[in-house]
Amino acid sequence: MESTKSDGFRGLSIIAFALMAGLALFAAVVTYLITSGAQVGSEAIISPQMDIVLVAGFGLMCLTMSRFVFSKILESTSQEQRQDYPTAIARYRTAIIVRLALLEGPGLFAAAFALVTGNVNLLLVTIFMVAMMWVGKPSETEFAEWRQK
């Protein structure tokens, strides 16, 4: 039974790291394309400053939503569901995947915006989102504390 519990977290960790790696790899490719000297992207879509404000604003909105939705999913789980391990891990997995998806979206948006505009500064939002995904990765301690509430 213990190996099943470890396997559940191992699979969830693989998903989390795959999302982070995909975003980081895409950002690295965009950085290479922009800095390689090839003609990539045109000018700013709105203006250089407004592009950054738009991308950063979207990132902050999704960051806020990721925290809110994650906590709402976990709070909506009854005490009986928390005590049943398969149900609890399924709810926690859902909450983690939603949280990571809400963080990956603005990271991809920022990287795509950087590719279209040629503004490498927009990738700072992508780097920030990867960092927030790292902070929000699943942990057995967080899971155990949530089940004890």
Mean pLDDT: 88
Shape: elongated
What is the N-to-C order of secondary-structure elements (H for helix, E for strand)? HHHHHH
Task: Count structural domains.
Answer: 1
Number of strands: 0
Contiguous helical run count: 6
Helicity, as a percent range: over 70%
Q: How large is the share of residues in beta strands?
A: under 5%
Largest sheet: number of strands, sense, barrel closure: none
Q: Gap between N and C termini, in Å?
A: 23 Å
Structural class: mainly alpha
Detail the poorly predicted runs. Answer: none
| Alpha-carbon Rg, integer | 18 Å
Structure description:
- The structure is a single chain.
- This protein is an all-alpha fold and 149 residues long.
- The protein has one domain (2-148).
- It is 82% helix and 0% strand.
- The chain contains 6 helices and no strands.
- It has helices at 2-35, 48-75, 79-83, 85-117, 123-135, 140-148.
- Helix 1 runs parallel beside helix 4 and helix 1 (2-35) packs antiparallel against helix 5 (123-135).
- It is elongated and about 55 Å long.
- The model has no long low-confidence stretch (mean pLDDT 88).
